[in-house]
Amino acid sequence: MNFITIAFTSMEQLWEFKQLTNTLNCRINSVDCTITSEFNEAQVKLAETMFQARAVENERLKAFAS
Fold first, then answer.
1. Tens of pLDDT along the chain (66 residues)?
2. Are the C-beta atoms of residues 33 and 10 closer than 8 Å to each other?
3. E-strand spans in 8-66?
4. Neighbour count for residue 27 (Cβ, 10 Å)
5. CA of 54: how far to CAs of 8, 34, 65, 66, in Å?
6. 35, 5 in Cβ contact below 8 A?
7. CA-to-CA distance for 52 and 60, rounded, in angstroms?
8. Which among 14, 35, 53, 66 is placed 20 to 30 Å from 7, CA to CA?
9. Helices and strands counted in the chain (H then E)
């Protein structure tokens, strides 16, 4: 898994995704409606298909996790 930031169109959608995926260790930016965590491929696909969200891999965050 990699650190991924997923951008949503609303905080309501972000929160629903967080609850569905049981994401506990994450960073949420309420201004940008983004959530960053170690998501797997299935979780990213869920965000993209069910919530029309967009995902961006965070190379900088990966370096900090190493």
1. 568 999 999 999 999 999 999 999 999 999 999 999 999 999 999 999 999 999 986 655 554 454
2. yes
3. 27-29, 34-39, 54-57
4. 11
5. 7, 9, 22, 25
6. yes
7. 25
8. 66
9. 3, 4
